[in-house]
From TrEMBL, chain A:
Main location: membrane
Superkingdom field: Bacteria
Annotated localization: Cell membrane
Coiled coil region boundaries: none
Protein name: Sugar ABC transporter permease
InterPro entries in the record: ABC_transporter_permease, MetI-like, MetI-like_sf
Annotated PROSITE patterns: ABC_TM1
Cellular component per GO, a single term: plasma membrane
GO biological process: transmembrane transport
Residue ranges crossing the lipid bilayer per the database entry: 21-43, 76-98, 110-130, 159-184, 205-230, 269-289
Family: Belongs to the binding-protein-dependent transport system permease family.
Positions of the ABC transmembrane type-1 domain: 73-288
Length: 297, 304
């Protein structure tokens, strides 16, 4: 505030400003500039190379009438909703179990979290192998005598997203568990004592006292999971390659294909702008609640 | 010591003090049972990877994926490392491994150096607009990468680094910046203000305070940053695909190309050995770093 009136404002903290040049360049040129650039060019008919010939909402109309895009959106919705709910539930239950003052807590936590250290490519390839109908789970159950048992999610267009979901949950629930555990550890011990004195059963204490108290943790986790879900790409590429057919296409893959394979940049820009929009719908209200409220208070 | 009054009032009703714990209560069985079952589910893929990579192909065709190898062979590992083919190149994953090393090492060093200085400036040397830039940076962390892919292609092409390892290094520095800057900013903010002021009085400047006071104090946070960056960059796939050429592909991209290539007979044991090899670096980091890894995750979840 005081800086504004000083004439030497620009040269104050020169070193700090010089040191911040990479950050400023990244923030302005890449994050802000790049995003605006893509949004602007999504209104053009760029093909192989970006060019500024505006065609209005043409790209968006074509996008929303492309069956492949509609499949992508539907897939992401199915995957997103299920993975959000399941990873929150599983993550919380695991965290609650680990919070029971048990032995080997560190061992269990290490086991639940290690998949998170692995890349989506590795995750996708392992589960591709486990779900392989010829050798994997289906083969084993059949060889136990259930000849008609069928479980081949990666080769069945109707359930392929669930096959990807299994892998995604395996990779990501450890993270949710860790965040939830940190939240549970932040709950005052006295609350547990008070609930016990009042004779409230444990599950009720969790449901009606602890979870509402952990609202900030849940919201943060929600934002982290959601922004991860929108980026879903590597896992699909590694596990199914978008197949069978186009059955497991996702928006991020659609964008990549149109930008770098089909040489239809305009479509790619329009699709990525839609991705941006969907994230904005989640992030802006969150940011408002998180930071806007503080400013008022 | 409990007062006699308490003793008197509760003496006739119920035994006082903590109940002696039985090792096998119903509650314990449920808790440990569930945890054990889930732990097995989580460990299964790792086990399957190891077991498959040690079998020969005939054994894989006959047996099931969960059975331990009858005859242990390290041939798939050798093949995955040295001779597995992607397209026309048949020099195995080793090339991808070294590419990944050459990408990860400079990216980690440069991005941490930049971000730590940034975080330090944001915490102790605020200037007009610094918070705005920081806010843009944090929002940038949530923008889907797809939105920024092509503008970065143009930028890299302009400076002549598109397709090279150094281009990818720059990209990793850019996208690592939000989380790392946040990490360092929060850490340096928690350093007592008096320390900083004392150094100022003694005549130390921006770099002097950073190098002589902040840096030696913040070793743990540097380790956390190191863990986040090494695993993150090693595991990256999207940027590798977009910003490098086949001869500079990082390990993850090459792995995907080896396993998902449509040509030739599928060699599942080689594939699993290759997968395990690629996952080995982050796994080793994870098991060595232990609690610090968890701290890195928590740092990622800290709200700005």
């Amino acid at each position: 505030m005081a800086d504004r009136t000083r004439p030497s404002g620009l040269f104050k903290n020169v070193n700090a400003k010089i040191a911040s040049i990479p950050m400023i360049l990244t923030a302005l040129c890449v994050f802000l500039g790049g995003t605006l650039w893509t949004v602007v060019y999504s209104f053009t008919d760029s093909k192989l190379l970006p060019r500024l010939r505006f065609v209005g909402l043409d790209q968006y109309e074509r996008l929303w009438s492309a069956p492949r895009w509609l499949v992508s959106i539907e897939n992401l919705a199915v995957y997103g909703v299920l993975s959000l709910i399941l990873s929150l539930v599983i993550g919380f239950v695991l965290a609650a179990l680990l919070d029971q003052k048990i032995r080997f807590e560190n061992t269990f936590r290490t086991i639940f979290l290690y998949p998170f250290a692995l890349s989506f490519v590795v995750t996708g390839l392992v589960w591709q192998w486990i779900l392989n109908p010829q050798f994997g789970i289906q083969h084993i159950v059949r060889s136990l005598g259930f000849e008609s048992f069928t479980f081949d999610p990666l080769y069945n267009a109707d359930i392929v997203m669930y096959g990807i979901l299994i892998a995604g949950l395996w990779q990501g629930t450890g993270l949710v568990m860790c965040l939830m555990l940190a939240g549970l550890r932040g709950i005052d011990e006295d609350i547990w004592k008070a609930a016990r004195v009042d004779g409230i059963p444990m599950w009720k204490t969790y449901l009606f006292i602890v979870i509402p108290m952990m609202r900030p943790v849940f919201i943060t986790t929600l934002v982290i999971i959601t922004s991860g879900i929108v980026k879903l790409y590597d896992l699909v590429v590694a596990q199914t390659g978008g197949g069978p057919g186009n059955a497991s296409e996702v928006p991020a893959k659609y964008v990549y294909e149109f930008m770098f394979r089909a040489q239809n940049l305009g479509q790619g820009f329009a699709a990525s702008t839609m991705m941006l929009l969907s994230v904005a719908i989640i992030i802006i209200p969150w940011a408002y609640l998180e930071f806007g409220g503080k400013r008022r208070g | 010591m409990a007062s006699p009054a308490v003793f008197a009032s509760s003496a006739g009703v119920e035994p006082h003090g903590p109940r002696p714990r039985r090792a096998i209560s119903r509650r314990n069985v449920i808790v440990y049972g569930t945890l054990l079952v889930v732990a097995i589910y989580y460990l299964l893929p790792l086990y399957v990877m190891v077991v498959t990579s040690l079998k020969g192909m005939p054994e894989i065709r006959l047996g099931n994926i969960f059975s331990p190898p009858v005859e242990i062979t390290f041939e798939p590992w050798v093949k995955a490392w040295a001779t597995a083919c992607t397209g026309l190149n048949c020099d195995g994953l080793s090339r991808g491994f070294w590419n990944s090393v050459r990408i990860t090492v400079p990216s980690v060093i440069i991005s941490i150096a930049i971000a730590s200085v940034n975080g330090y400036a944001l915490a102790n040397w605020r200037f007009k607009g610094s918070e705005t830039f920081f806010a843009i940076l944090i929002f940038g962390a949530f923008i889907p990468y797809q939105v920024m892919l092509y503008p970065i292609v143009i930028i890299l092409r302009e400076i002549g680094l598109y397709g090279s390892l150094w281009g990818l290094v720059i990209v990793h520095c850019i996208f690592g910046m939000p989380i790392l800057t946040l990490l360092f900013r929060n850490y340096f903010t928690s350093v007592p203000e008096e320390l900083f002021k004392a150094a100022r009085v003694d005549g130390a400047g921006f770099w002097g305070i950073y190098l002589k006071i902040m840096l030696p104090m913040s070793l743990p946070i540097f380790v956390v940053a190191l863990i986040i960056q090494i695993t993150g960059i090693w595991n990256d796939f999207l940027f590798g695909v977009v910003y490098t050429r086949p001869d500079t592909y990082p390990m993850t991209v090459q792995l995907n190309n080896i396993v998902n290539s449509v040509q030739g007979v599928k060699e599942y044991n080689v594939n699993m050995a290759a997968t395990l090899l690629t996952g080995l670096v982050p796994l080793v980091i994870y098991f060595i770093s232990g609690k610090l890894f968890v701290r890195g995750i928590a740092a990622g979840a800290v709200k700005g």
